Automatic annotation (TrEMBL), chain A:
Residues 681-798 form the Molybdopterin dinucleotide-binding domain. Keywords: 4Fe-4S, Iron, Iron-sulfur, Metal-binding, Oxidoreductase, Periplasm, Selenocysteine, Signal. Belongs to the prokaryotic molybdopterin-containing oxidoreductase family. One of its GO terms (biological process) is anaerobic respiration. Its cofactor is [4Fe-4S] cluster. The lineage of its organism: Bacteria, Pseudomonadati, Pseudomonadota, Alphaproteobacteria, Rhodobacterales. One of its GO terms (molecular function) is electron transfer activity. InterPro entries: Asp_de-COase-like_dom_sf (IPR009010), Formate-DH-alph_fdnG (IPR006443), MoPterin_dinucl-bd_dom (IPR006657), Mopterin_OxRdtase (IPR006656). One of its GO terms (cellular component) is periplasmic space. Residues 1-381 form the Molybdopterin oxidoreductase domain. This is Formate dehydrogenase (Quinone-dependent) catalytic subunit. Pfam families: Molybdopterin, Molydop_binding. It is found in: Periplasm.
TrEMBL record, chain B:
The keyword Metal-binding applies. GO terms for molecular function: electron transfer activity; formate dehydrogenase (NAD+) activity; formate dehydrogenase (quinone) activity; metal ion binding. Residues 24-201 form the Cytochrome b561 bacterial/Ni-hydrogenase domain. It is a multi-pass membrane protein. This is Formate dehydrogenase subunit gamma. Its cofactor is heme. The lineage of its organism: Bacteria, Pseudomonadati, Pseudomonadota, Alphaproteobacteria, Rhodobacterales. Signal peptide: none annotated. The chain crosses the membrane at residues 34-58, 70-91, 130-150, 170-190. It is found in: Cell membrane.
From TrEMBL, chain C:
PANTHER family: FORMATE DEHYDROGENASE, NITRATE-INDUCIBLE, IRON-SULFUR SUBUNIT (PTHR43545). Keywords: 4Fe-4S, Cell membrane, Electron transport, Iron, Iron-sulfur, Membrane, Metal-binding, Repeat, Transmembrane, Transport. GO terms for cellular component: plasma membrane. NCBIfam families: FDH-beta. [4Fe-4S] cluster 1 binds at C59, C62, C65, C201. This is Formate dehydrogenase (Quinone-dependent) iron-sulfur subunit. It comes from Paracoccus laeviglucosivorans. GO terms for biological process: cellular respiration; formate oxidation. Residues 1-25 are annotated as: Disordered. GO terms for molecular function: 4 iron, 4 sulfur cluster binding; metal ion binding.
Length: 811, 229, 325
């Protein structure tokens, strides 16, 4: 989220599209209720189903799963056509005025540079014209036909309300009503907030969905302001922390990158990281990259990481592929190339697409270790549970070890919420039986592995032997110790960069913020964005002061928000060119003639004069990007792409299937179905009564939603002779499930051109373990393909067929 | 013995002649009657305990409210069954006859105990028949309404509005049957010599002569016209 | 809102409840009515009436209130089947004191589809039909703050409360044969905490405080709804039962039946009134009169005796017939 949860109370219009905030984030949703109750804010929901969020919305429109880009581009088109643009913002704070290379173009649904063989783009044309001064060319009048604005205008001109109706199945009048409501928020005294989650991410072009809304928000001038923002509602309580801490195969904590094989040495690696400013006077924040990186390396290997050995750069793994995402891992496992799998707090046979493939993959392992408080389906994948897990136990040779862990309620630590707040929590109960904290288990394993390396050697033992492990009890690091390590501390006295006599942190002291990080080895810090969470003042995450001057919703003294305790990202953009708030009633920070000050921590150098430095300091041009240059694999603008399994062909290019650059493994391509065989669109989602696959172990949750079902419209029920509460069979090219039928007018068939599209909703919470009734989830059916940029599986749009089940499912 | 009885039950017979005693109820019938009577008394006490707060103390007789609550309907069933047996035996002789009308029209004499002016009667007089039919009808009403309000086993049997009517009907029927019961018991006591019909099974000849002369005559064979005997 | 136990009634409101432990401050002395106890001593003090307001228009049907209720009351609702609807359990049960009920509604006036979600449960009527119907002394009590509570020790499980309630709320347990329903968390209120469901409700669709405050709050909510085009938005605090201490804000207050058959004009059924009123007095009187009358008549009046002459007549009759035979 660019803004914290609490800020949503400041909004005038909430659009929940690509998510179901009331059901999946009920507690956060309270801020929507606040905005409605205290500001008269309106709520719009766009969802294939009339959800519980829609039940409290002011306006709802249905949409065909996987067609959001059309809706969003049409919304941008409408804003441009109807002059609902925050012009000053767009001109100065976005890259609208920058000039793009002549070679860049779009045709038949594809951008310039497409190579069908490689399923990839040559992105060299997707960039600005760089002038002789080394800076990007610009035309502040926005008249140059090659400026981003005019390219965008042309790009979105195809997306008309009629196209929305034809592709999305959203009735035109509903679309128009919604864009009118949105358009009002281009005024400086009105803000819209976007709340989204998996309805946008779980598509083969998920990242582009989000780009679409981000662009719309920029055009309305809603980024960086109170009550605005792009608010990704994160999933698990600490999933934000997980991404922050770099639990992705291609990331280092704090969104630094794991080197690739091509970056064989430190200098090569660094050369492509320290971005050079693209506009005069601009500071590019990533120029600090070496400080963060060196401090990270020092936190890993301490005194063994030196300037001489390039901070032990050689000990970092180097990627041979863009990422070892989970899809790839299971592909490899299924190919027999992975033999041991540690599965920590994850239930892949229920959570992951194409359960058949996942089960086959697990069956090929030698060893599967699960670390979980519960007996998961994954740990029991080899057990035959009748139709619910019909495996041949005797043929599975995988050895399974279940290590019982504590749950979040049984240990201390911090959770990072969607609003980037690191909130400390305290154990609320004692763990049962032999359950141990995850850190305890990992420390035990690590110590034993290190011993093996010590005793027996091995390939590249250094990173393991030299790993810093200075915890009071090496077999049981505490949450406090880990938090301090993430924050960082001075390894030697650290002096001010401009005034070398001014001591900022004495040796051994906790650092106050990442401004104190150094690239000379004098500081260490595990995760630069977390710097400030545990300083010499103690545990900042444990603060619980809810004072809030001017009711801004920033709550600067409540816990800690990364980065730098900043609550609203890009808050410099809440003020105009002179540094005055666009809307005095929404003041966040203002330029007082000498520095920036206000209710939030400025997202700009406090002394950077307005006009000198652009507000989007993480970008080389200091501007936000309506045109993303080469940063996205599938295009600098979002363009409509159908899901891999779609009931209708792409309107721009009949032959284009799915996202043309998404990675597809060969065996999975064979398992895509077509609409002749599988005429219905399925989408999967969660229900408010359950959390994934583990609350079904809880009797009360199980009582509140006891049994697996699918949701269908009365029209489809009538067509197929399905009765309310009856049992149905749903199948895709990859598998088959049985479920109870919930027939509801909340699902409507969508008229997409001349095709009537029926949507089947499949909630995901059932399995064969736990207290609830045994059932399936959607993932016996879902396709094994992910987003082109980040590999999030396409869970939200796939094709199935349905029929009443002849035999009643055993229950 | 007799080919066709009109005023008496098979089994009714003159037991001794000097003095005359007439057998009115077999042992089984008497036992059954007392089961019925005991059930009704239990029902009355347990029902009345729930009927009015001032009588709630009666639950103590049964070991508290919970026991009273579950016991009552079961005893109701017992009552119904035992009364059913009684009913099957007795209904024929309780069918109205022309002389009943005369009897009713002389109800004043009945109350004053001046039976000389009354017509000769079979085994039962109109008052008894009224009690018989009244009890029969009310027991049906009570069991019907009682089951509808039987929370423990039939909570969903009828809708709540119906249930409200049922409980009202049950209460009213209960009051009615209690009144009839009082009448019945009082009549049995007031009409001296009656009780022994239900205790020993016999009545004296004089009692039979006075109250149910036709019945006596039939048993004595006076009406018997069959030459073969 | 005060939470000082000495100042006023135990109550909390939308604001945070006290975090200091408080002595239970709601007891026998606060009972103003008790079932089958017509001569109850008057309460020792008058508490400020409290109320739980359920703003249906804010409710997202998340069932957090249901789960909080089960957690707090330590009940274990049954794990049923899915029968093609969102209501689970399918009805109120002795182990589920509150239930979200879902209704799909095509609004003919606006042409919009609506999904109306109502939290069902005891309304804590000022004139409680359950209490009126209950035959067991003290099994149902009403406190001066308006809470209607079942005292299970006194309950005999007859189910009359079910019959008496205009909202179809109480449920008698098959396990212990006692009747259960929402207590308005009287045990929490007694120590200055609001109901568990209100505490859990993420959207503050459930709020708790003095009835007065809640009415003010509700009126503001109705204004907001009217501004959003719900012209018939209103408060559901039915007169017929003297008002309730759990009440609703509805978008369609003119059509409460839309919300899973919320009664249009609830009141204690006249049948129940008749059953508990005239029937009892008249019935008891009739029985009493009959009993006393017959005893008196028995004592004072002349019994219906059989005379010796009649015995003789009988003997003659029998002899004659024997002779004839
Ligand atoms: N109760 C509960 N809450 C949870 C979780 C849980 O399991 N249970 N899980 C947590 C986790 S890990 C996550 S990631 C979040 C997810 O939070 P959400 O993304 O909000 O949850 P979902 O239910 O997966 O999907 C949201 C909605 O997307 C809609 N949708 C499907 N396809 C499309 C589409 O193409 N376009 C649009 N516009 N909408 C579409 C679905 O109908 C659904 O209503 O929830 C978190 N919160
Ligand atoms: N079709 C379809 N599939 C989906 C989705 C969808 O929308 N549609 N959503 C996807 C999304 S967004 C997500 S996040 C995944 C969720 O998939 P998972 O993450 O596999 O789901 P959970 O059930 O949350 O699994 C987490 C496990 O962590 C355990 N756990 C809890 N606390 C701890 C702890 O402290 N330590 C350890 N070691 N374990 C702990 C729990 O017991 C549980 O078994 O599902 C994905 N799958
Ligand atoms: C014939 C079968 C009967 C059945 C099944 C039956 C059942 C019931 C039931 C279920 C109740 C509710 C209380 C409880 O559950 O215990 C009840 C109440 C009552 N019953 Fe019966 N009953 C029967 C017969 C009778 C009879 C014969 C009488 C009269 C003597 C009677 C008098 C009452 C009374 C007075 C109440 C209380 C009603 C009130 O509170 O208004 N019942 N009965
Ligand atoms: C303490 C209570 C009772 C007493 C003292 C009592 C006494 C008697 C007596 C003495 C008779 C014989 C009368 C006769 O032969 O003319 C009789 C008959 C009878 N009693 Fe009872 N009774 C009692 C309770 C009941 C109850 C509760 C019922 C039914 C619910 C009942 C039903 C009958 C019936 C059906 C007869 C046969 C006569 C007839 O059909 O009218 N009695 N009872
Ligand atoms: S995780 Fe818990 S606190 Fe967060 S929204 Fe869900 S229910 Fe509420
Ligand atoms: S709603 Fe029913 S149970 Fe609750 S107080 Fe009113 S009558 Fe009693
Ligand atoms: S079941 Fe209990 S609370 Fe209900 S009426 Fe009977 S005694 Fe009273
Ligand atoms: S007030 Fe208490 S008992 Fe009543 S529904 Fe809420 S949590 Fe349950
Ligand atoms: S907790 Fe609140 S929002 Fe959730 S279902 Fe209950 S009343 Fe509705
Ligand atoms: Mo997630």
């Amino acid at each position: 989220m660019t803004n914290p949860w609490t800020d949503i109370k400041n909004t005038d219009l909430v659009i929940v599209m690509g998510g179901n905030a009331a059901e999946a984030h009920p507690c956060g949703f309270k801020w929507v209720t606040e905005a409605k109750a205290h500001r008269g804010a309106k709520l719009i929901v766009v969802d294939p189903r009339f959800t519980r969020t829609a039940s409290v919305a002011d306006y709802y429109a249905p949409i065909r799963p996987g067609s959001d880009i059309v809706f969003l581009m049409a919304a941008i088109n409408w804003m441009i056509q109807n002059d609902k643009v925050q012009w000053e913002y767009v001109r100065n704070y976005t890259n609208a005025a920058l000039i793009v290379k002549d070679e860049f173009g779009w045709q038949d649904g594809l951008f310039s540079g497409y190579d069908p063989e490689k399923r990839d783009y040559d992105k060299s044309s997707w960039d600005y014209v760089i002038g002789d001064d080394g800076f990007a060319a610009i035309d502040m009048t926005l008249e140059n036909p090659r400026c981003v604005w005019n390219l965008l205008k042309d790009h979105v001109s195809r997306y008309t309300p009629e196209l929305v109706e034809q592709v999305c199945g959203t009735p035109k009048d509903r679309f128009l009503k919604i864009v009118q409501m949105i358009g009002e928020c281009s005024a400086t005294d009105k803000a819209m907030t976007s709340m989204y989650a998996l309805g946008w991410t779980q598509h083969s072009k998920g990242a582009q969905n989000i780009r679409g809304m981000a662009m719309l928000q920029l055009i309305l001038g809603n980024i960086g302001v109170r009550g605005g923002g792009m608010n990704a509602l994160r999933g698990h309580s600490n999933i934000q922390g997980l991404t922050d801490i770099g639990l992705m195969s291609n990331l280092i904590p704090g969104y630094l990158n794991i080197p690739t094989e091509k970056e064989a040495d430190w200098t090569t690696y660094m050369s492509s990281r320290q971005f050079k400013p693209l506009r005069p006077g601009q500071t590019s924040y990533w120029q600090n990259y070496p400080k963060f990186m060196v401090s990270f390396m020092k936190s890993m290997w301490g005194s063994a990481a030196t300037a001489e050995n390039d901070w032990a750069y050689d000990w970092l793994p180097k990627l041979d592929v863009p990422a070892y995402d989970v899809l790839r891992m299971f592909e490899l496992m299924n190919a027999g190339q992975i033999t041991n799998y540690f599965c920590q707090g994850f239930n892949p046979i229920l959570a992951f697409p194409n359960r058949g493939k996942v089960t086959a993959a697990l069956s090929k392992l030698k060893l599967l270790v699960t670390m979980d408080p519960l007996e998961t389906e994954t740990a029991h994948f080899w057990e035959n549970h009748g139709e619910y897990n019909d495996v041949d136990t005797a043929s599975i040779q995988t050895e399974v070890i279940e290590l019982p862990t504590t749950s979040f309620a049984e240990d201390d630590g911090s959770l990072v919420n969607s609003g980037r707040w690191l909130q400390w929590h305290w154990a609320a109960g004692t763990p049962p039986g032999q359950a141990q904290r995850d850190t305890w288990i990992m420390a035990q394993i690590f110590q034993r592995v290190r011993k093996l390396y010590q005793d027996e050697g091995g390939v590249l033992p250094e990173p393991i032997l030299n790993l810093t492990w200075d915890y009071a009890d090496p077999l049981d690091p505490t949450a406090e110790e880990l938090a301090k390590e993430m924050n960082g501390r001075a390894l030697a006295d650290v002096y001010d960069l401009t005034d070398k006599t001014k001591l900022v942190a004495a040796q051994g002291k906790q650092l106050a913020n990442f401004g104190q990080y150094r690239d000379d080895g004098s500081t260490m810090g595990g995760c630069w964005i977390f710097a400030g969470c545990w300083t010499e003042d103690g545990n900042i995450m444990a603060r619980r002061d809810n004072s809030d001057p001017d009711d801004t919703g920033t709550y600067l003294n409540w816990s800690f928000s990364w980065p730098m305790n900043r609550r609203i990202l890009y808050n410099r953009a809440s003020a105009d060119l002179e540094g005055k708030a666009w809307d005095p009633a929404r003041k966040l920070i203002e330029w007082n003639g000498e520095k920036w000050e206000g209710y939030d921590v400025p997202d700009i150098s406090p002394t950077a004069k307005p006009g000198d430095v652009g507000p989007f300091i993480m970008n080389q041009e200091g501007m936000s990007r309506l045109f993303t240059r080469g940063l996205m694999r599938d295009g600098p603008f979002p363009t409509h792409m159908e899901p891999f399994e779609s009931p209708i062909p792409n309107v721009f290019n009949e032959k284009m299937v799915g996202n043309p650059v998404a990675r597809v493994f060969v065996s999975d391509a064979e398992q895509f179905g077509t609409s002749d065989e599988f005429p219905f669109v399925a989408t999967s989602y969660r229900l408010t009564e359950h959390f994934h696959y583990w609350t079904k172990h809880n009797r009360i949750n199980a009582a509140l939603q006891p049994e697996f079902f699918v949701e269908i419209s009365p029209e489809l029920a009538a067509e197929k002779g399905i009765a309310k509460g009856g049992t149905v069979r749903v199948w895709s090219k990859r598998g088959s499930i049985t479920a109870k039928a919930l027939v509801s007018r909340r699902l409507r068939p969508l008229q997409c051109g001349d095709k009537l599209v029926h949507v089947i909703g499949i909630p995901l919470h059932w399995g064969f373990m736990g207290a609830a009734r045994k059932g399936f989830g959607p993932n016996s059916l879902t396709p094994f393909v992910g987003d082109a940029n980040i590999e999030t599986p396409e869970y939200k749009a796939f094709l199935v067929n349905i029929e009443p089940a002849t035999t009643e499912a055993v229950s | 013995m007799m080919a066709r009885r009109i005023y008496s039950q098979s089994g009714d017979h003159i037991e001794t002649t000097a003095p005359v005693t007439v057998s009115r109820y077999r042992g089984f019938t008497r036992a059954n009657h007392w089961v019925t009577a005991a059930s009704l008394i239990v029902l009355l006490l347990s029902g009345m305990a729930l009927f009015h707060p001032s009588l709630y103390f009666l639950t103590a007789l049964f070991g508290g409210g919970q026991v009273t609550r579950w016991l009552h309907p079961f005893v109701g069933i017992l009552l119904f069954l035992s009364f059913l047996i009684l009913f099957l035996q007795l209904w024929r002789l309780n069918l109205p006859r022309p002389e009943d009308a005369t009897w009713v029209s002389h109800i004043g004499d009945v109350v004053r105990g001046e039976e000389e002016k009354l017509p000769e009667l079979g085994k039962y007089n109109a008052g008894q028949k009224f009690i018989f039919w009244g009890m029969s009808a009310l027991i049906v009403v009570l069991i019907g309404s009682g089951v509808m309000i039987w929370e423990q086993y039939f909570p969903q049997l009828v809708s709540i509005p119906v249930r409200r009517v049922a409980v009202l009907v049950h209460s009213l029927a209960a009051v009615a049957i209690i009144l009839i019961f009082i009448l019945h018991v009082y009549a049995a006591i007031w009409t001296r010599g009656t009780l022994r019909a239900m205790t020993r099974g016999t009545v004296t000849g004089g009692w039979a002569w006075r109250h149910h002369r036709k019945w006596l005559r039939e048993l004595a064979g006076r009406e018997k016209r069959d030459p073969a005997e | 809102m005060t939470t000082d136990p000495n100042v006023d009634s135990p109550r909390t409101a939308v604001s945070n409840p006290p975090i200091q432990p408080m002595k239970a401050n709601l007891g026998a002395g606060d009972v103003m009515r008790a079932s089958a106890m017509p001569d109850l001593a008057p309460p020792e003090r008058e508490l400020t009436p409290v109320a739980k307001l359920i703003d249906v228009s804010k409710c997202i049907g998340c069932k957090a209130c249901q789960s909080a209720c089960a957690e707090w009351n330590d009940t274990v609702p049954e794990i049923e089947h899915n029968v093609g609807m969102y209501e689970n359990p399918h009805d109120l049960t002795p182990d589920m004191f509150t239930l979200m009920r879902f209704t799909e509604y095509d609004n003919p006036d606006t042409g919009e589809f609506e999904w109306l979600i109502r939290k069902d449960g005891c309304m804590h009527c000022a004139d409680p039909g359950c209490l009126k119907a209950c035959p067991a002394p003290g099994a149902i009590v009403q406190y001066t703050n308006g809470i209607v509570d079942f005292i299970h020790d006194n309950c005999i499980g007859c189910g009359y409360c079910v019959t008496g309630c205009p909202f179809n709320i109480p449920r008698v347990s098959k396990a212990d044969h006692k009747s259960y329903k929402c207590t308005l968390c009287s045990d929490r209120v007694a120590v200055g905490q609001g109901p568990a469901c209100a505490k859990a409700c993420p959207t503050q669709a459930i709020v708790f405080g003095t009835k007065e405050d809640m009415l003010t709050h509700a009126e503001a909510r109705v204004e907001d709804l009217k501004s959003r085009g719900y012209d018939n938005a209103g408060i559901y605090d039915p007169e017929g039962v003297g008002g309730t201490h759990v009440f609703y804000v509805l978008h369609h207050a003119d059509k409460p039946a839309l919300y899973s058959n919320l009664p249009e004009a609830p009141r204690i059924s006249p049948v129940v009134e008749g059953w508990k009123g005239a029937t009892k007095t008249v019935g008891l009187a009739a029985i009493g009169l009959a009993a006393v009358g017959s005893i008196l008549h028995g004592l004072l009046g002349r019994a219906n005796q059989v005379s010796a002459a009649e015995e003789h007549e009988a003997e003659e009759l029998v002899e004659r017939s024997e002779r004839d035979a």
